Amino acid sequence: MLAAALLASACRGGETAAAAAPVPEQRIDVPATTARVVDLEATLQISGSLAPQARVGVAAKMPGTLSRVLVQIGDHVRAGQTVAALDTREIDAQVDGAVAAVNVARAALEAAEANLSNAALEHERAGNLFEKGALPRQRLDGADTAHRAVSAQRNLARANLEQAEAALRRAREAQRDATLASPIDGVLVERNYDAGNLVSPVARPVVAVADLRVMKLEAGVSELEAGRLRAGMPARVTVQARPADVFEGRLAAIAPEVDARNRHFQIEVRVDNKDGTLLSGMYGVATIPVARAAQAIAIPREAVATRDGRRQVLKIDGGVVRAVPVTEGISNGTLVQIVGGLSAGDMVVADARRNVAAGVKVNAVQ
Questions:
Q1: How far apart are CA 264 and CA 287, in angstroms?
Q2: What's the alpha-carbon Rg for the chain, to the nearest Å?
Q3: Which pairs count as long-range contacts for 354-359, CB under 8 Å and 24+ apart, including other chains?
Q4: What is the pLDDT of residues 173-231, one digit of tens each?
Q5: 335 has which bridge partners?
Q6: 89-175, what's its fold?
Q7: In this structure, are residues 6 and 12 in contact, taking their beta carbons and an 8 Å threshold?
Q8: What residue spans define the domains of the chain?
Q9: Which overall architecture, per CATH, does domain 28-42+293-365 show?
């Protein structure tokens, strides 16, 4: 009996001690971040292939056979420099024929002018005799008719001369067109034919010349983005082929009309390329700064979410989570400026999309 009593007393003592022991507090671990002060820059990025600001195909203006191609891909050419020529033997013969036709027409005009002068004298002489009564009216009418006929022949001869001269101009223009010249300063980037090939205006150009001193990057931007841009803004351009280099450019043009197919505005970024580092067709990315904020309070974009129709963060105060409305400013794509609702050093849940209820006690894991 004594042993049983002692055992029961010991059990009751153990239960009392267990009830008196503190229960450990339940907390959940959440990733956290701290609002910090940074210089923030909002940018717009566009990407695409680089193209020369000017690229011109030099094509034949008439069908013919190439007699010479004077340049190779990579050659630098000047505006007006001959790059190719057509066989001109037939064209030269046409020019010679047109010159002969002009000479014939000019001689015919001179003969018509002489006949007209003679007819004018005869008409004047017949008029004088008619006034004196020495010539019948019929002879005067005949002289007048002859004068008008010779005058018409002179006009016809003059028209024939003009027609022959026009034909000569066309033949000489064709003779000039047989010589293909570069219309711009640049580098030969394409050559499609060799001497002896037949070419025509509807075929591919004989060569193509590009001015690589200035490269351009074209892209479409939304209406909202276009409203934040203006011509002359600086741009930083990088290319995959040279990832360590940054090339300075500028926003050169913004299309004043939206493309009805995709509701985008076309913009063009131009980059100086006097040293020839950039090549046509390289894939590039242009970064255009659109806004800056110095000494701004910023947190990661994922730390802000929309709850109950408002932008909020999950702020951690004393290990307890509470929802705090915030006002956002500019963003650089990674960080977002907090204009109101937070102070520098405040700790928030790093991902506001986490299902963490307000009032929950947490362990902040930086």
A1: 18
A2: 46
A3: 354/30, 354/314, 356/28, 356/30, 356/314, 356/321, 357/321, 358/314, 358/321, 358/322, 358/323, 359/320, 359/321, 359/322
A4: 999 999 999 999 999 999 999 999 999 999 999 999 999 999 999 988 988 888 889 99
A5: 300
A6: Helix Hairpins (1.10.287)
A7: no
A8: 28-42+293-365, 46-53+211-290, 55-87+179-199, 89-175
A9: Beta Barrel (2.40)
**Four-CA torsion 117, 123, 129, 132, nearest 10 degrees:** -120
**What are the E-state strand segments in 263-365?**
265-272, 283-300, 305-307, 310-317, 320-325, 327-331, 335-340, 347-349, 362-365
Q: What is the pLDDT of residue 4?
A: 56
CB count in 10 Å sphere of residue 13: 10
- d(CA 139, CA 8) in angstroms, rounded, equals 171
Which of 258, 80, 36, 104 shows the shortest CA–CA distance to 180?
80
pTM: 0.64
Kindly give, in sequence order, each residue whose CB lies less than 8 Å from that of residue 41, ignoring residues fewer than 6 positions away: 289, 291, 292, 293, 330, 332
For position 365, what pLDDT does the model report?
86
Q: How far apart are the first and last CA of the chain?
A: 61
CA atoms within 13 Å, Cβ hemisphere of 365: 6
Note the helical H segments in the chain.
Answer: 2-20, 89-132, 137-177, 223-226
Which parts of the chain have pLDDT scores under 50? 16-21
SS (H, E, C) 167-205: HHHHHHHHHHHCEEECCCCEEEEEECCCCCCEECCCCCC
Q: How far is CA 51 from the centre of its chain?
A: 8
Instruction: State the CB neighbour count (10 A cutoff) for residue 190.
Output: 15
CATH class of 46-53+211-290: mainly beta
